[in-house]
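fold description:
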Amino acid sequence: MLFRRRARMLRWLVRGRVGPVWMWKALMLFVAIGFAGQLLGVIFNKSSLQTAGRSIFTSADAQGPSLGSCQPHTHIMFLKTHKTASSTVLNMLSRFGEERDLRFALPLGYQLGYPLPFNAHRVKGYRGPRAVEFHIMGNHMRFNKPEVEKVMPADTFYFSIIRNPVALTESSFAYYKEVAPAFRKAKTLGEFADDPKKYYDPRLRNNHYARNLLLFDFGMDHNANFSATLAQRAEEMIRQTFRLILVSEYFDQSMILLRHALCWPLDAVVSFSLNARQQKLGGIGGLSGGWVGRVATVAGVGGKGRRSQAKILTNVTEKQREKLRQWNALDWHLYKSFNQTFWEEINRFGVAQMEEEVALLRMRREELAHVCLRDGGKPVEAHRIRDRNIRPYQSGLVKILGYELQPGLDNATRTACLRMIRPEIQYKDVLDAKQFPRPVAAQAQPEAHKQNLVVAAGGSLLRRDSSRTRERPMGRWVAGRTLEEGERDWDGNRLTRRNQTLIGGQYKGRLS
């Protein structure tokens, strides 16, 4: 329309000879410039529309460096340990599986029977050993290998993640102080560290959070007295099953090893830190960018670590840290051993290649955070998140942070970004609804029922007990520990009800 108007004006000026020659010549020049500007504008607009239509999640950068001819693993079991950045790892598994319509081994509630040893019948839709193909298992459980093998295929890739037990205890203290009696009795972590036995009673429920929590999650006896033989046996049992053990202090390096082990694209292991505490974050997406170049020493993770110990344990002295290492001696043995193995894996991978791929991972995280997240990609307090469906649950003595999506995203980009920031509990509900669609009338869960379920610090599911003022964990407890009659440990040995003594073979220690 504008083009036709300018053409008519030009013909009128030429035919009518209106005004001096210089005037209509100037007008002709003006019209020509207008034509050119309009033409260029159309070209640029088309270019910008094409760029906007091409999602950042489908770009070449999403794939990352070539992995050769390997095929992606789709049968995966992740042992989600507590306070180890495992919620962030679970988010990756959830995204990968949802995007490819894989089937998840989901819990009937929100955890797979934790803190009871895992039982296959805790999986929703389970119909007997291998009757249904499940691709991914990753919600909280206390590991029990024979029962897991009933659910997952024989070619399943098993992996888990560990953390320095001193830092883990600090985080556990903050999350579970009102849940674990041993922590509740102590005013500070330093006070607990000075004399753990003064506060710790193995018979009391939830005290497993206060001692050798890693070993407990791996399905073994966290209360056993330390011996080198016992610790080495526990280590070997883990090595026999788990093909990769990640280290949370070196999260980015862990993601590169995981990516290559699973043969996954780069975007599958790019993440924003989830379920994180307010006072411990830095950098875009809640993960700091410092490179850790050396193995952690036996004295603890060095100052070059992803989070320095000085910032983590401000109220604990070095002497108290050593006491915590002794108190968690079995966990400390596992951490040292698998930390060493982790760096041996990096050396085989190639240190230079690791540095290059970690740099690419961090660049990609920054790029996706810029596209997806408000506030420059930094996590925010839950009450600042406008969408209530992605607010992280708040529990314990600390604030759990989350993210807000950038406004104005196209549908495809918004969907991909939302998957990256969706909290663990809400993501489980989304996956559950897809795998087990319900009639419309049944989809609205009564609010009263929701209020009876409480998520304790760190994700432990509790039920309100109307007969007591305290909350009690769901599940049956025996002598202060959870155990079912006649169950077997994950190496196949039978356990007794009273003290969970390992019976079988030549060894009769107290692994559970």
